[in-house]
Design goal:
single chain, about 230 residues, alpha/beta, 8 helices
Length: about 230
């Protein structure tokens, strides 16, 4: 059954001198959530935002706060972001052993947030199998995490399709999110493969009209999704 794709603009690409205006613009345009990229300078080679900013963001909008933890010690910091107003929290499989990943997902869900796990472009989706049935969302990185403005890695849509197949085999249906180089040209690729949530940075916030840009990406993705479902007879 067709469900519209959700757009999750990444505020890493927004105007930090006027975040309230940028968030209001994406809210009016129909954004599904606000994507918050947290980087620690260790797990990825960049340092971005943290708990104090999330606290302020969560007060500025009714949109869900989608927190992406690109950090080396997520088990320690998950409670911080829960308390700061996160609605969903994503941890990276590469930052955790199997047992730790299971613990992290359980901790997020027990805290009342939606739990998600992510894999980098070079990491096989099979590492998520131990927790896949317990996830609310899977995040496929279509660039190497660490910096905004990178180009989409061609073939990333194949990993989306792999997660779809693995989830069906387990009888679960987590949302599938894709992050990295997503715009009007690339959104149809991942949407047709089964992506439900698209993280957009520069494609939205670097546009002259962020609201119009967001809607254009959503329309392109939805059209591709409809075509794919029709082709599959669904």
């Amino acid at each position: 059954m067709f469900q519209p794709v959700k757009i999750a603009p990444s505020i890493l690409s927004a105007n930090f001198m006027d975040l309230r205006a940028d968030i209001a613009a994406i809210e009016r345009a129909g954004a599904g959530m606000v994507h918050v990229d947290v980087m620690d300078g260790h797990f990825v080679p960049n340092l971005t935002m943290g708990v104090p900013l999330l606290k302020q963001l969560s007060k500025a909008t009714d949109l869900p706060m989608d927190v992406h933890l690109m950090i080396a010690n997520p088990l320690e910091q998950i409670p911080w972001f829960v308390d700061a107003g996160a609605d969903s929290i994503t941890v990276h499989a590469e930052a955790l052993g199997v047992d730790e990943l299971v613990r992290a997902v359980a901790l997020i869900r027990q805290s009342g947030c939606r739990a998600a796990a992510s894999v980098k472009p070079g990491t096989p989706v099979e590492v998520l199998l131990p927790v896949l049935a317990d996830l609310d969302m899977v995040l496929i990185m279509s660039v190497e995490p660490g910096f905004s403005g990178q180009s989409y890695i061609r073939g990333s849509e194949g990993k989306v399709a792999q997660v779809v197949a693995a989830a069906r085999a387990l009888g679960c249906a987590p949302l599938i999110q894709v992050d990295g180089g997503i715009g009007v040209e690339t959104a149809p690729l991942v949407a047709a493969a089964g992506a439900d949530v698209l993280v957009c940075g520069n494609a939205v916030f670097a546009a002259e009209d962020p609201g119009a840009a967001l809607r254009a990406v959503a329309e392109a993705a939805d059209a591709a999704r409809r075509d794919a479902l029709a082709a599959a007879g669904e």
